[in-house]
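S2.1 Query sequence (Abortive infection protein-like C-terminal domain-containing protein)
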Amino acid sequence: MASLKRTEYRIIDQAFGMGGGYVLDFSNRTLSDWFEDEFNIDIYADSYASRGDSKANRVRSFVDVEPAPLVARMLRALWKYRERMADYNAGTEARDKEQLFEVIAKLEDPALRLDDIKAHALRFDAAHIADQIRRMEGSIVKDPALAIGTAKELVESCFKTILRERGIDYDKEDLPQLGKKVFGALRLLPNDIPEAARGAKTIKTMLSNLATVVQGVAEIRSLYGTGHGRDGKVRGVTPRHARLAVGAATTLVNFAFESHLESPASESHVHKTS
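Output structure tokens follow.
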């Protein structure tokens, strides 16, 4: 979830003219079409009705319940729509844009996604995950290699937690193998998407990229992180490398945990700890 302050919600309201229940120049139909076209999301689904049924409340509810990176993407796309409107005035709306993009920057900050993972750690009684988050938070700048190594450990802990929750075996699989097991259990493999599904090709590509992200997290840890002996000549790991690894890991972990919560296990397996 985005976890924004009331002042930040007011900035969003101001940027998109959401007073009185409106959102820019959208009608109910065009707002529905816009969310379908941009994100393949039904903004009039029950999950976005918690604040009420007006267009503005639908958007506010979306901000309430969706992961921070998706909310940031939505706000960026909505502002791009605003800039294309005939009555847009770059001069008079400069302050609105500046404040909105400060909110977007916060939503895109890996630290906010770590807050979401903390909530998952509490839900699953996974104290070791909370420890890993604290270690990453304290080391991105001070010890980037430690942050990178811990990012890989976080992904591994997430995968093992999901497998344990679903009663699925794991033993000494490496990270990509664990990922394949988890994605299979959550029906997040490309072959799980019917060809007739809307946007099937795009969805299959995105799901294929999950495995690529897992592989990347494992490889950057081997190159720069803690946990393996490294060539003494390896230099240049900086906080920006750490932010890349932590950002990728936290986005992946949040997506995996949320997918796990939204798709109940259909069968039990005997769990074997590693």
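Residues 228-234, 267-274 have pLDDT under 50 and may be disordered. The radius of gyration is 21 Å.
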